[in-house]
Design goal:
This protein is mainly alpha-helical and 171 residues long. Helices cover 65% and strands 4% of the residues. Helix 1 (23-35) runs antiparallel to helix 2 and helix 3 packs antiparallel against helix 4 (117-170). The protein starts with 13 loop residues before the first strand and ends with a helix. The protein binds zinc ion.
């Protein structure tokens, strides 16, 4: 039986869902992590201090602060893979995608059979996923168009309203 492909996958990139996370937890975590950062002993330097040792200490201090914030973020803020941030994407699409990928891998693992139930399930999962993406995209576009249209109408009535006021001023 052929092995499931072990081709290396590029590192996943994530987007942080700040508006869907508990910020109090983040602040607490930040407080905790920052307390662990050592403060360099050169804080009373003059503004233009050029001592290499001091500059190095400041760089180190800076990167420790950045690490502490990064760690606090990782521990307390929800994240999603970047790909799912397409504006029309939703959890239902994620689920369909998982199903589609699962059945595809299973089909590959089984030696890519051409006329079996597995092939039918695989293809129907794939079709369902594609169709759902198309539908979600179309719905999103319709919604955007409707919003754009209503903005346009509002602006138009605002402009004609302003023109009316200006005209009134002339008389
Ligand atoms: Zn200094």
């Amino acid at each position: 039986m052929p092995a499931i492909s072990t081709r290396s996958v590029p590192t996943k990139r994530y987007s942080w869902l700040w508006d869907k996370s508990d910020l109090n937890t983040y602040y607490e975590q930040t407080y905790y992590e920052l307390q662990l950062v050592d403060i360099p002993g050169y804080c009373d330097c003059k503004n233009d201090c050029r001592l290499a040792e001091h500059r190095y200490a400041i760089d180190k201090y800076y990167s420790h602060i950045a690490c502490a914030l990064q760690k606090a973020t990782c521990l307390s803020i929800k994240r999603v893979p970047c790909r799912s941030l397409k504006p029309y994407w939703n959890e239902h699409l994620d689920k369909l995608k998982e199903d589609s990928v699962f059945w595809h891998r299973l089909w590959v693992y089984a030696g890519r059979p051409s006329s079996k139930t597995m092939q039918q399930i695989r293809l129907s999962c794939k079709a369902m996923h594609k169709l759902a993406i198309r539908n979600a995209y179309n719905q999103f576009e319709d919604k955007m168009n409707a919003e754009l249209y209503s903005h346009f109408i509002n602006k138009k009535s605002l402009i004609s309203g302003k023109a009316g006021v200006q005209n009134l001023g002339k008389y």
